[in-house]
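Q: Sequence in, structure out?
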Amino acid sequence: MKRILVKSDVEHTEVAVLEDGRLVEYYKGRRDQGQLAGNIYIGRVTRVLQGMQSAFVDVGLERNAFLYIDDLLPAHLEKQPKEKPPVHELVRTGQEIMVQVAKEPVGTKGARVTTHYAIPGRFGVFMPKADYVGVSRKIESAADRDRLKRMAERHLLTGEGFIVRTAALGESEEALAADLADLRSRWHRLEQAAKQPGAVPRQIYSDLQMLPRLMRDLFKGDVDELVVNSEELLREIRGLVTAPGAQELAERVRLRRDVDPMADYGASRQLEMSLKRKVWLENGGYLIIDQTEALTVFDVNTGKYTGGVDLEQTVFDTNREAAREIARLLRLRDIGGLIIIDFIDMETEANRAQVLGELEREVRKDRTKAVVAGWTRLGLVEMTRKKVRDSMEASAPQYCQACGGSGLLSPSNKK
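A: Exactly. Output:
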């Protein structure tokens, strides 16, 4: 069963997603809070770095944004030149340029921007200059993929592109066309805003605020129930799902007045336990999670689990459960970048393959793209997960040295 919990007070809104009672996604922010990713700006090129085939663009953020040459070339790979031209032939210092934030600033790094514009909607992502149609990799049926692709192609104009989202599965062609038309209209308004004289840099487009954006991206046909804690939220969310093909979702919104749904369904407790450096598995094993600037490391341990057959079976059971839990934690903590997993050593190749398969199956549930590269020669599993913004740890309360943090004291400071 998939359930979404929404809790709101005067200042903040919390949204939690539970699958069969397990917390898999969590968001908290101010009610009017937006996000940088997806925003479009008229910026100015401040520096062109030939040696890095890139440029920096002032879009009005604290740090200049990074623009790589691949994000200046056509989005359609088949239309890109076989040999990339020098970046100074594409942009020059002082040039005004319209760019979209692809990755938010992370740590000491500024935002990454692109000229591959994309406007997300309920059933798809409109790409005004991409000139191709894609279908979400989560739609596995070849027949469904082909049907949805042909539906989108019939309503696109020359040069336009579209990526069909999983929410479009089972929807009518009319609903898909209406969504595409609305996105195209938004793009045309954005183009008009870009042509108007004004200060540089300036923002000309932003995605929806937190709650409408999450309802668009999360509240789909596979959700059995959405629980809110106030009549105001009930009306607001039902008002957000009035688009063609989405009305039936309004009937799945339930009001639990004067109840804290986060506490009542166990989401608060699960969140607290999942943010620790040491996370216990249900069978008594545990994970140690360490994040560095370069990568995130998961270390798997049998802990209190002693098994009942033999050592190989004990290790295998622990690793399989760890694979499922690691995939869940990646989603919940929104960990991106390079990820290394140190599973407990297994003797048989079949067991290693099953553990890897378990991990690959679980990460397919993730809305964020993740790629499992496989086992290294040293017996580690390496994978990557798209990094759009800072992980939850960056905005969550920091670990202290007394409760499991990784900080060290010099010998002279020891008591």
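The first helix runs from residue 142 to 153.
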